Amino acid sequence: MQQTISFNPRYIGQMITGTLGPDGSYSGKAARQWSSGKLRFYDDIPDTVEGLLKNEVDFCVVPVENSLEGSVTLTLDLLMEHQLKVVGEEIVQVKHLLLSKARREDVKIIMSHPQALSQCRRFIKTNFREAEVRPALSTSHAARLASESKDIAAIASREAAEKYGLDILAENIQDRNENFTRFIVIGKNTPPPTGNDKTSIIVYLEKNRPGALYEILGEFSGNGIDLTKIESRPTKKVLGDYLFYIDIKGHIDDGKIKETLGRIKNMVGMLKIIGSYPVAK
Amino acid sequence: MQQTISFNPRYIGQMITGTLGPDGSYSGKAARQWSSGKLRFYDDIPDTVEGLLKNEVDFCVVPVENSLEGSVTLTLDLLMEHQLKVVGEEIVQVKHLLLSKARREDVKIIMSHPQALSQCRRFIKTNFREAEVRPALSTSHAARLASESKDIAAIASREAAEKYGLDILAENIQDRNENFTRFIVIGKNTPPPTGNDKTSIIVYLEKNRPGALYEILGEFSGNGIDLTKIESRPTKKVLGDYLFYIDIKGHIDDGKIKETLGRIKNMVGMLKIIGSYPVAK
User: Fold this and answer.
1) A133-149 burial, b if ≥16 CB within 10 A, otherwise e?
2) Contact (Cβ atoms closer than 8 angstroms) between residue A209 and residue A268
3) Rounded Cα gap, residues B50 and B214, in angstroms
4) pLDDT at B209
5) Which of A22, B25, B140, B168 has its CA 20 to 30 A from that of A188?
């Protein structure tokens, strides 16, 4: 029990979790799923992570992957840059609404985060052909701006509508219905195994060794370890030079995982373990 | 010679190439590298590709990968959605400048495409702590807006400075110097082999078959075919279900490549060949 408490801040009211603001964001929703404690809102993903590094918060919750848009690359890059531990994940269903103080026929500008705008592209083209489409820093930021204007509509969440006192002009306006975002919880210590865990690693293969990735996957496959995700990211040094972000099933405390990662470490240029954590429900 | 001419519009003045506008964009620069013919500018990547599908243009040039930011996922998704052929690639070095009609001390708003803003994050934080950072649809769009304002500065290219008559307040302001973007040229027919080609494919592995990727890579490795890139993208159906975008060395007309892809086709849920084309210099 002691261990569970120390890693689930839901039971510790005084814990502070940092996330993307302003309030009414999907990130805020994920942070509330993770913790019933206090939230602290930041302007962007790097600021949120910095808040954790500066000990302003105990955990932070940031988006890492959307079922339509793919990875949030800024988050992946920060995991490479800093010594952080992924300690959990939360999944939130994204349901966009069109929110405004204006009547539908008076809307001249539609604002939202660029990802939300692109997820509602067809809706906007069909219903607001004449409107100016303007990007904002976040969906909730767009909602706040809409609440101060007579001709702006924001694409944002139901929580944002309530928070900023906006009317709902349309619901469920995304072009595809299945729209989920996965958030990661970042902390400083690895939680203990639960029996249903994931381990995330970053690997740098030596350049000009085309068979290297095949050999690494062979280590996992040969030891009965399941990959749940593999993704490449640029090293930011040379175009065409990549890091691989790999998620596998299991916890780093499992002997099999530990041994396999130990062998892989000797085969690659770099291996970084960024966390073992319970799989989201 | 005949073959070269039919695939390099540099020699055909009347060819029209579509790309991202307005003029002064990095995409425009890539399009001019590809063709000396006419350019037609579009608002965004989907509109540019649509222009090709509607035969408004003969080719289109769109960004696919940046050495700092990684893949342009919108472009990858359109390659999956439509029957298009990648027929070439162009690489452009990105050098951001701060451009304005205002003096440096009068700048209140800094605008650019979100990627450019994030690439100059440190510069902005150090030099314009008080400025409002506002996203725009493209770097050249930001430059156009700056040319109509007394307190906006845009982060954009040297070409944009010239095009919109803006003063250069600062040069080379990106946080990292090595900043290259790879563009793909999309057309409708596969160009013939040149001896230094790449083939791009999309593969869908059956879900819940963790070893499948390993087997595919084994086919390439066993036949001496080099991978130059592998990247996962969501299928947009279920969170955690992926397509793989793979680039290999060689042309689809090479017997070895053709046979290997033939075998792989029988091992996977879907294999789509999106083009064989000369490697960029």
Assistant:
1) bbbbbbbbbbbbbbbeb
2) no
3) 36
4) 66
5) A22
Domain A2-93+179-187 has CATH 3.40.50.2300: no
pTM confidence score: 0.83
Instruction: Give pLDDT tens digits for A6-25.
Output: 455 454 557 999 999 899 99
β-strand partners of A17: A39, A59
CATH code of the domain occupying B197-278:
3.30.70.260
A234 inside 8 A of chain B by CB: yes
Q: What residue ranges of chain A are covered by domains with CATH 3.40.190.10?
A: 2-93+179-187, 97-170
pLDDT in tens, B34-72: 999 999 999 889 999 999 999 999 999 999 998 888 888
Q: Known catalytic residue: B59?
A: no
A68, A210, A237 ranked by CB distance to B178: nearest? A237
What are the tens digits of pLDDT across the range A142-174?
999 999 999 999 999 999 999 999 999 999 999
Q: Are B89 and B184 in contact (CB under 8 A)?
A: yes
Q: Where in chain A is the domain with CATH 3.30.70.260?
A: 197-278
Tell me the pairing of strands B59-66 and B16-20: parallel
Q: Which of B70, B178, B214 sits opposite A73 (nearest CB)?
A: B70
At residue A1 the predicted structure's pLDDT band, cuts being 50, 70 and 90, is very low
What is the structure's pLDDT at A153? 98
Catalytic residue numbers of A read 181, 183
**Residues B180/B93, Cβ–Cβ less than 8 Å:** yes
| Helix pair angle (B212-222, A212-222), 10° resolution | 140
pLDDT score, position B281? 80
Whether B84 contacts B186, CB under 8 Å? yes
* E strands in B127-266: 132-135, 152-156, 167-170, 180-187, 197-204, 227-234, 242-249
Domain B97-170 homologous superfamily, CATH: Periplasmic binding protein-like II (3.40.190.10)
Nearest CA distance, A180 vs chain B (angstrom): 7
What's domain B2-94+179-187's architecture?
3-Layer(aba) Sandwich (3.40)
Q: What is the pLDDT of residue A156?
A: 96
Q: How far is B258 from chain A (nearest CA, A)?
A: 19
